[in-house]
Amino acid sequence: MKSSLQRKTGHTVDWLGFAPFLLFCLAFEIVPIIFLLRGSFIEKTTHQFTIQHYLDLQRPLYINSFINSIKLSGLTAIIGMIIGTFIGYAIYHWPSERVREALITLSDVTTNFAGAPLAFAFVVILGMNGVITQFMLQYFNYDLYPKFSIYSFSGLILAYVYFQLPLMVLLILPAFAGIKKEWQESAQSLGADTLQFWWRIGIPVLIPSLIAGLTLLFANAFGAYATAYTLVQAKLSLVTLQIGYMIAGEVRQDQAVGMAMAIGSLFIMGLSIGIYQAATLRTRRWSKS
Length: 289
Fold this sequence. Notes:
- The protein is mainly alpha-helical.
- Helix content is about 80%, strand content about 0%.
- The protein has helices at about 1-40, 50-55, 60-90, 95-110, 115-125, 130-140, 155-180, 180-190, 195-220, 225-230, 240-250, 255-289.
- Helix 7 packs across helix 9 (about 195-220).
- The model has no long low-confidence stretch (mean pLDDT about 85).
């Protein structure tokens, strides 16, 4: 009797400790989504139910926004996944533990350096009067512009890859830690070389983590706003930029259409997170085996 009462008391204390997180999710995630859904289906003048705001998304401007965002997010996610995996492998096998910890800390700091400060840093470095631009012009007589521009789609890819790479490094390091040395030793005892081990054992084990990292990088890039706004603004149509123009713009303000675009973005982000969760569960099964 006493033990059951203690268990109930313990469960109550656990739920009380979890309550602030639930309130946070309710206030900053669930309630805003409810208002977005309501606003995207309500006509602003008659306050009647309508799906016209979603039909308006068939306009070329909005379709191109989704295409450009998906293209930008996909390219930077693939580049970040491939290069970040190799960098993570090099960091994981670095002989000095102190250097390895310093590189991991640097990756942690770099992945949080995004938004407007990152964009301004790239302008200082690779702008028309940037440090590297003037260095190439002065010492190599090579002008980056107009062949390359930090204010273009290719420049935006470079800026996005900057914060995608360290994020992939942080995501892939636990996956390398999950590859047990006993597996490689067993493969070598059976006559397999390093290439065969990675082809038949290492890479299949890493695939769920790679898929999880790819989808998370995609979602991370798809939801980015400040970097794109600072660098390209009206030069490139992206979903996040269009939502900003619709919600708070002065020329093309239409909050209902912006809310409809936000719901479409939430669907894409939710699909990415669902794939990430499925891949993460697969990775945990490998780590427990």
